DNA sequence: TTGAAAGCGCTAACAC
DNA sequence: GTGTTAGCGCTTTCAA
């Protein structure tokens, strides 16, 4: 049999389609009798609203797009995505909103996202890992749709609200700790310099070290394990007497660890190694990584809250930066 | 200004809405003149089709749901998800289908998924990590919607088509290799026994070892690192003279490694350690893990192909099991 | 408090 | 080849 429509329910309940719609949407102008009859009819017929039809008239899609702006290959290499995605799905589901995932790695992808949003198929956009200068950000903003970012969008901090950890403060914690441990020559492996984690963790590093944070002691990675390995190799070649390294992510730290070990350096005896994120890998390396924990689940929660507020019509919602925590393990 | 509709385009092009619809949908009965005028009008007005309106009449949603059946907390702990999700999004986007993600951890979740699908909001369902006996599987099957699973659904192998690696063969490869290396007392840490990876990798293990695969040498984990640690501890306590361990996943192997090291066992000298998946962690442990590579990207591709064929109306599409490859590193 | 009816934007059948 | 038109299933005035 065909799927029952509001029409069938109305017939079964002996009321009009308008009334059925009213009880469906919790309108208060419905008599108890009509409501009861309708509810019974809904149960009997096994009726399920057709969101498509509803969307057509309400102009609301009932879904949110999550845009992953990382180039294809690297997406998800970062273990941090997991928590964010899980949290987003859950929070959205509570509001009966669904999560549509899109990748925006190249121009074609960005175009697809834009068409999708312009087509009115999303009530909000959740940006992940957006790099500075991404044209999609402004394009999206022009569409006048609620947009939020998990982690700041460099250069658009004031136009796209976000929730993030205190990147700079976290990096300061780690650097200060390394200094307090008596380390004299501390190097850093940063993330990409067009991401907040790349820029701000380096800022925190130089905040503490001042002029001791010389160019020679800084290398850039791209968050991958492999980039950590090679950055560490360059660092070691240039400054063999390094006695500490702060990698801007645990994954890169794990890469650096491989290089250090291959070079015959003992960790932490010869070189102390610090990571960032407190992701799963931090526990699986040997020695386990001293790292900076960022409250990922809470960041995701807050990001969603901002988006939902925006969708509910809030004009402007402030961004938030949550405190990090230094987790000392065996690598320092 | 309001978003232009097919009506505006028709007016601008000087044709009827029907004609616009025809060029939009690639109908062949359109004169070149009309087509050109329409295309120009589309460009001029910045028109984007409203999929909602289209869905309402075509009864097609233009999206596919990916259902993650893992209990909430564990989702994504498995690094294998990443590749699957990425591949799915990409393949679907090529067909202009979008990917909606839903979690089905508890009864309420399953109900939501079912309502969504029954509501006609998905043209197909992609199952991930479904456990044996999951009631959602049969419920979904009853809805008569294309359903495919990434990895077999235990107990429903013949009703839900799937793509997977040759789980059993892969486990045989590893076990045989361990035997060939001269290991005498080989233990195994399996996955959950209601998943294909849990069951079939153990089968491969016993296939090779025969009665030497005694109960004493088998422990069950749940794919997490922690479960690998504790399973290893139980194994060691029961049989201190173990000289090899085959963990059904790299993540669990990395947990086992921690326990082995804490117990003073050298890997691989005292105990050889094999994993499964060839995920990122396999390279980040020390020593790097010997493991069984499963062609994740291809498995995901094939899964999507099956689903798309089904959506295109194919009656029955055969499941596939792709060959694995033994990757020898330093842990054996 | 309720019913009737006008669309939301699009596709597809039909007539020309 | 092309225009016209009848819905797809729902919400939301407008009257009553």
From TrEMBL, chains A, B:
InterPro entries: HTH_LacI, LacI/GalR-like_sensor, Lambda_DNA-bd_dom_sf, Peripla_BP_I. This is Transcriptional regulator. SMART domains: HTH_LACI. Gene3D superfamilies: 3.40.50.2300, lambda repressor-like DNA-binding domains. PANTHER family: HTH-TYPE TRANSCRIPTIONAL REGULATOR GALS, LACI-RELATED TRANSCRIPTIONAL REPRESSOR. GO terms for molecular function: DNA-binding transcription factor activity; transcription cis-regulatory region binding. The keyword Metal-binding does not apply. It comes from the Bacteria. Residues 4-58 form the HTH lacI-type domain. Keywords: DNA-binding, Transcription, Transcription regulation.
């Amino acid at each position: 049999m065909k799927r029952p429509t509001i029409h069938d329910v109305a017939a079964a309940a002996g009321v009009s389609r308008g009334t059925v719609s009213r009880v469906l949407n919790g309108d208060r102008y419905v008599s108890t009798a009509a409501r009861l009859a309708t509810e019974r009819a809904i149960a009997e017929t096994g009726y399920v609203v057709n969101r498509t039809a509803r969307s057509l008239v309400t102009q609301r899609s009932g879904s949110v797009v999550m845009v992953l702006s990382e180039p294809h290959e690297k997406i998800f290499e970062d273990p941090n995505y997991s928590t964010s995605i899980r949290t987003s799905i859950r929070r959205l589901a509570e509001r009966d909103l669904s999560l549509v995932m899109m990748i925006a790695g190249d121009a074609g992808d960005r175009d697809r996202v834009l068409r999708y949003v312009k087509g009115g198929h999303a009530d909000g956009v959740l940006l992940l890992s957006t790099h500075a200068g991404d044209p999609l950000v402004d394009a999206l903003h022009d569409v006048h749709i609620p947009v939020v970012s998990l982690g700041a969008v460099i250069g658009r901090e004031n136009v796209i609200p976000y929730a993030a950890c205190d990147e700079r403060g976290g990096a300061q914690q780690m650097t200060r700790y390394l200094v307090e441990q008596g380390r004299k020559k501390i190097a850093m492996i940063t993330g990409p310099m067009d991401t907040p984690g790349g820029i701000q963790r380096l800022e925190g590093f130089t905040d503490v070290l001042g002029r001791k944070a010389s160019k020679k002691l800084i290398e850039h990675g791209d968050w991958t394990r492999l980039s950590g390995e090679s950055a560490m190799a360059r660092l070691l070649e240039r400054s063999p007497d390094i006695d500490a390294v702060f990698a801007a992510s645990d994954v890169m730290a794990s890469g650096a660890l491989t290089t250090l070990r291959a070079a015959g350096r003992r960790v932490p005896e010869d070189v102390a190694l610090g990571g960032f994120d407190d992701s799963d890998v931090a526990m699986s390396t040997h020695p386990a990584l001293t790292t900076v924990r960022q409250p990922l689940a809470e960041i995701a929660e807050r990001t969603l809250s901002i988006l939902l507020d925006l969708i509910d019509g809030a004009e402007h919602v402030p961004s938030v930066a949550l405190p990090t925590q230094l987790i000392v393990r065996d690598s320092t």
